[in-house]
Design brief:
single chain, 66 residues, mainly alpha, 91% helix, 0% strand, flat
Length: 66
């Protein structure tokens, strides 16, 4: 039983390093995408503000009814 727990706790360092490298690469790609499509991102956020306000108003009405 103790040997099974020991095997599960020890992972190869290369597997952890690969996961960290993939995570860093994805973060860099995400940051590059945000920088490259900054104007489109702002347009998307501005377009979503109206829908958010509609949903917030609907939730407020539902809460007021209860």
């Amino acid at each position: 039983m103790a040997e099974q727990n020991k095997d599960k706790q020890t992972k190869p360092v290369s597997a952890k390093a690969l996961k960290v490298a993939i995570g860093v690469a994805l973060m860099v790609l995400g940051l590059a995408a945000v920088i490259y499509w900054w104007k489109d991102l702002i347009n998307l956020i501005q377009g979503a503000v109206g829908l958010f306000l509609i949903m917030a108003g609907a939730v407020a009405i539902i809460i007021a009814k209860n």
